[in-house]
Amino acid sequence: MPIAAGQSAQADMTLYRVGGDVQAPRPVSTPLPIAPEKLDKGRKVVVSFVVTPDGVRDIKLVKRYKAEFDTAAVDAVARWRFEPARKGSKRGRDCATGGR
Questions:
Q1: For residue 54, what are the contacts with CB-CB under 8 A and spacing of at least 6?
Q2: Residue 12 has what pLDDT?
Q3: d(CA 80, CA 32)
Q4: What 8-state DSSP symbol labels residue 38?
Q5: Is 71 helix (H, G, I), strand (E, B) or coil?
Q6: pLDDT computed for residue 14 by the predictor
Q7: Residue 47 and residue 54: Cα distance in Å, rounded?
Q8: pLDDT confidence band for 95 (50 / 70 / 90)
Q9: pTM value?
């Protein structure tokens, strides 16, 4: 569920709902988690996070599985990189999007 327009991500940054003239950040690098040796197929960990021009932040576990899988998922998302979001002609520090 996208974060509503106007909710503050940082003191100097506003989060906008994707749609209309707001384009979502584009993934550039999304490395997979380094899974523990015993991989349980069909299990998943769900995380929410905010993409800013400085990277991914506010990573939260929405659906947990086991500590070792949870940690691997959070560590992987922390390494993800995105091309900045855009709002009209603004990009980078002038525009961020949020989702869940």
A1: none
A2: 52
A3: 9
A4: S
A5: helix
A6: 67
A7: 19
A8: low
A9: 0.69
Enter the tokens of residue 53.
């021009």
Q: Which long-range contacts (CB under 8 A, 24 or more apart) does 16-21 make?
A: 16/85, 16/87, 16/95, 16/96, 16/97, 17/97, 18/85, 18/97, 18/99, 21/87, 21/88
Q: Determine whether 59 is exposed, middle or buried from the number of CB atoms within 10 Å of its CB (0-12, 13-18, 19+).
A: middle
Which of 17-21, 35-39, 57-61 reaches the highest mean pLDDT? 57-61
* Residue with tokens 């949020």, as numbered in its chain: 98
Structure tokens at 44: 């998943």
Q: Which residue has the tokens 């769900």?
A: 46
Average pLDDT value for the chain: 76
